[in-house]
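Appendix B. Chain record.
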Amino acid sequence: MNKQTVAYIGIGCTTLSVMACLLICILGVVSPIYRKYPSKIIVWISCLFILLGVFIYIDQSIVIIESKNPHDSSKSKKLHILTESLIGITITLISNQFILFLNEVKICIYNPFQATSSSVFIFLLLLQCLLTMVMIVIPLLLLQELHLSDTDALSTLNDMASYISFVSCMICTFFYIAIWIILNKNKSLQSRRLYEFKSDFVKQQFYWIFAMSAINITFSFYNYNPHKGHDYLGLKIALSLEGLIFAIFHLIQPYSYHKLLQVFFKSFQDQSYIQDIENIEYGLNTDIHNRLIPTYEKLLKTQINELVKGLVKAVFATLVMQFDHHLKDREIKRTYTFKFHLSELNESRISLNEEEDVRDSIILVNTYYPNSFTTLLKQNNFNKSILEFTLELQYNYKAFEKAKESMGRSGAFFFFSQNHKLILKTVEKSEIKDFLNGRIASYFVHINYHNKSLIAKIYGIYKIKLMAYKTQYLVLMENSFESMQNLEHEYEIYDLKGSTVNRTSRSDERVKKDNNFKQSPHNPISLPKEMSNQIKKQFMDDCRFLRDIGYMDYSLLLGICLEKPQQINSNDYRLVINGAQNTIYSFSIIDYLQRFNYYKKSEQCFKRSMQFKKKKDLSCRSPEPYCHRFLNFIDSIIV
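Structure tokens predicted for this chain:
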């Protein structure tokens, strides 16, 4: 079999690979599940395989042209080496996917709250591209020092790309084995269903490892050829099939091929399957749910459900201890340790054998300023009975389902209690540290002095270590939207910052933003003169307090209900009635634990350089101008 025949076969194989990877990209466009992180990784790698296929197609076309026109061999040889170098760079980029792969497995095993964070995906993507550039630039600099010719330099670069790819694959394989060991070592600390999902997921990653190993070995032999003049023709064909092999591992998943049937053969597709797919995408439970939903989604739902239940249970147990114990007035931190079985979270335990004693799972909780927060809870009419009805697991099964859908770009989650009274929110360690260091005392003074403050109250700060998960930092807050939710009428929600840049929400988003509010018929908000002045005065006091302690980036959470006003007992400005317009408004200040640190300064510089906007238009600003702009915005929308 000559080179020309192999080139034709390689072109055919490359075409199959590109078509298979295009199917995965189509899934990424039409399927909400594939648009999530880490499913974006699958689409991203498929795009890289398509790019690899294009370069292979060009490379094999050059071989065919060279065989037909041997007189132009010198020119085509240089072009051939150039395309092989581009193949080497693409292979290096694909090989460095172990960065994304390891993070995907890490958040699956360790910190599921960041599993759908787009910002994490973008950061890792940039890190991977940067690493690839470093791997390419350094060899080029070394080759320049050796004063090699262009042809020799490109050939040597191919060899170095082979070594880099092979080492990357070995690193990934090493960590894969380590993950298996860790998973089985902590087997008895997990529920049976969770362990099965984790095992299935890690087994699926073996296919990924296998594809990466195959492409690395193929590429290494293809480039590093100790026998000059001998060409590994079979390896060229194998290299052309790598994208097809990768795509098949994902297209054979039940969700994938049912979704593709729906897209391409909708008229022939069983309508029950279409309904099942749609139910999965919109978060509804069906009998066929576990068969069609991807393994990662099943694992993520089970893991977050178990983790959220454990965190809520830990907070409730801590609050009960705080109410029962005599606490010191200025006690900064108190530590509690709780033991429980996963059966308490409605999950059966794993037992390696029937005679083995299953270990208790231990929750370690650090609660900060327990006496001050307990006093604040009592002042707001909370007692043990209300807390039990608010946070006990048996009253919050629907709330746990909603908590899974509340993850934002930051990877945080919001748990809203079923009776709408409390919110449990994960926060960054740096935010907690900043708040506890010199700001919490001012917070208590402000909240106690201003009984009608619009700042959403914090009722507790916790550091919780649950089983084998990452340590979580949480704040327990009042749900400032409780009164609006208890009206049981349709209402609109706006998250307002007084900014215009990137402050427009899509039509399918529940929470609207500044630009949406400006175009709505509710702008401006008309209130009685005395009420309007009082609310503006309270906004001024709250915003100046946040400015004085160095906070910015907070929002006005505005609720608008166009219903006939009811008799509402409200001692503050959280719920305001305009009887003349039959409208009920809800006001509160949320998300105020953000300081203007180096990260925010960098964000401001980046946005100014990218958007080419004036400073006053950006959401990210220092506390003083942020406060000034926010108050001006409040003054413009409330008349």
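Further analysis of this model is presented in Appendix C.
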